[in-house]
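Cross-check.
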Amino acid sequence: MVDAFQIEFLPRTGLSCLYIGLTRESAKRIMWKDVLKAINRQHKLAIRFNESELSARFPNGPVIYLVGPDSNEDERQKLLGQKFVLVVIRLYRVLGSIRTNAT
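Predicted model, tokenized:
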């Protein structure tokens, strides 16, 4: 993931990515510390993190935004009209087990 990310995203300036989780909190739990901050540490990218808006800004301009359907209206409005080079939608539904009756 990191190699493809670096090749496709980092060389381009001014492009943004959007990660949509099941909730805003789940997007943060999945991506913030274990992915974005880890990539930043490992590759010394000097990413600027904004905890309140859940954004990660790279030195050459690209930004990754983390959101969820439960994000407030102001957060959703900020995203309208923007051009995203990549949008990742990580929504899933937990289904109960399906019982079948064998005869």
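The CA atoms of residues 38 and 69 lie 25 Å apart. DSSP finds three helices and five strands in the chain. Passed to J.P. for a second look.
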